[in-house]
Amino acid sequence: MPLRSQAVLQRPEFSMHRALYKSMGYSDYDLARPLIGVANSWNRVLPGHYNLNLVSEYVKQGIFQAGGTPVEFGVMAPCDGIAQGHVGMHYILPSRDLIANDVEMMVQAHQFDAVVLLCSCDKIVPGMLMAAARLDVPAIVVVGGPMEGGCIFDNRPSDSTSLTEGLAMLRAGKIDLQTYIHLENNAAPTCGSCSFLGTANTMCCIAEALGMCLPGSATIPATHAERLRSAQAAGRQIVALVEKGITARQIINQKGIENAVRLATAIGGSTNMALHLPAIAYEADVELTMDHFEELARTTPHIAKVNPASPLNVPDFHAAGGVPAVMKELLPLLHGDALTVSGKTVAENVADAVIHDPRIIKTFAEPWGMGGVAVLRGNLAPNTAITKPAAIKPEMHTFTGKARCFDSEEAANQAILDGTVQAGEVIVIRYEGPKGGPGMREMYIAMKLLYGRGLALSTAVVTDGRFSGTNNGCFVGHVSPEAAEGGPIAVVEDGDLITIDIPNRRLHLHVSDAEIAARLARWRCPEPKFKQGYLALYSRLAESADKGAIIRHK
């Protein structure tokens, strides 16, 4: 494969470029080899990225070993967890597009021959995968790995989200302050992406299912030595991809996307996948509609149960066989001939995979159930809405309740904390979509507070916002059209009956079509919440949730 970098490093025309590299210590020997961009999203804000500087050192070792020259650069990485429950969450989903743009600009401006994408968490992994698909140069994803589970709380290993459940318990007098502080000190005992199967670990598993990670590498715990050996192997492999001319779109294509959807639903992954996979597909010129997504999800067995569907965390899933074991079980449904960054096909990668723990991973013949993620439609969600039956108790798969409406996350959370939300209610949280939020905040806190209040099995949440992968209870998000676009969710009134019917994929408002139309005729869109800065721009440009909340550029 011709080296892009050599075209801008030839003497004498580009001696200035060589001089700039040499000012940092690069030699003629370095500049004669493939220049491999290392997009490192390390920082000391995000636990999932805290170890990426060390991981990066091993990636660079592998690049040197294989005859390449690593050229490292930084990429932004905000933390969903620290952004929860305040204005910061407006910025999290919009950061995905900035990350994709950042990587694109660095790789293209400097004409790197390939790129290694170091990431671990919620919007950073999809943002980097979007960049890889857009660039179509040799690329490989290296993740930092999940953190270990924390102290036992509520009869299971705790995690960072246990603090929100614990807050409701504290306010309700179920635990004391000393217990709560002990939980704060011990719920997140190591660095790494959060130990449960939230969006972060879901997207890492998706990267592997797409074929963009080395087999088995997505779930190696952050603190394990194998994480570093795998990083070094990825460094060697990126040089091999350059030599073989294997670029990102040979992997991120229709086959890879469909394999990723099936894997994600088979493990009961985060509903945020329904935003990120269409966005990645858009960058790869692959069409992934919600109809196609639902067809794949509905026909895929739910094979692995991981927290929040189970007390067991992602490190336990890794020990049980991880992504390769699940994909081996799914092979009858997968494109086994799909190419991966290993240079081998999916079928070749998983040939020797074994299930080590049937408490977590079941077989294709005897799964936990079908369809870990579901797409709903109805007069409350004419375009679509998303839920996750894998994390919802079977008795809650059908629920009818009276609407209790809130026009912001904060208002809903306060009502739950105050104890005014009652059993039998459907909490409607609106104006939190991509445009109306803006930024489509997670309604994670509301769900956790309901759990802590003992209402998880007697209430439901319906929103045009989204959810964290750690949520359970009964919840429906991504309602489209969103309230800010004049969707029916904007005119739901307190006391209206709403039915969530997951088996029949329906979300129904028990109000006549004529009454909905009359209410919409009277409805007026509220003023934008942000009138300057990036969020003001994002709210004008972002597509709806059923389109992946993408910013269309082609």
What topology does this entry show?
Layout: H1 4-7, H2 15-22, H3 28-31, E1 35-40, H4 52-65, E2 69-74, H5 80-83, H6 92-110, E3 114-119, H7 124-135, E4 139-143, E5 152-153, E6 156-157, H8 162-171, H9 177-186, H10 199-210, H11 225-244, H12 254-266, H13 273-283, H14 290-298, E7 301-302, H15 314-320, H16 322-330, H17 346-350, E8 369-370, E9 374-378, E10 381-387, E11 398-406, H18 409-418, E12 425-429, H19 444-452, E13 460-463, E14 475-480, E15 497-501, E16 506-509, H20 513-522, H21 533-541
Parallel strand pairs: 1-2, 1-3, 3-4, 11-12, 12-13, 13-14
Antiparallel strand pairs: 5-6, 7-8, 9-10, 10-14, 11-15, 15-16
CATH homologous superfamily (4th level) name of the largest domain? Response regulator
- Please name the CATH topology of the largest domain: Rossmann fold
Q: What is the straight-line distance between the termini?
A: 28 Å
Number of domains: 2
Structural class: alpha/beta
Can you walk me through this structure?
The protein is α/β, with parallel strands linked by helices. The protein folds into two domains: 33-147 and 191-350, Rossmann fold (3-Layer(aba) Sandwich); 375-547, IlvD/EDD C-terminal domain-like (Glucose Oxidase, domain 1, 3-Layer(bba) Sandwich). The chain has 21 helices and 16 strands. It has helices spanning 4-7, 15-22, 28-31, 52-65, 80-83, 92-110, 124-135, 162-171, 177-186, 199-210, 225-244, 254-266, 273-283, 290-298, 314-320, 322-330, 346-350, 409-418, 444-452, 513-522, 533-541, and strands at 35-40, 69-74, 114-119, 139-143, 152-153, 156-157, 301-302, 369-370, 374-378, 381-387, 398-406, 425-429, 460-463, 475-480, 497-501, 506-509. Strands 9-10-14-13-12-11-15-16 form an eight-stranded mixed beta sheet. The protein is globular and about 75 Å long. The model has no long low-confidence stretch (mean pLDDT 96).
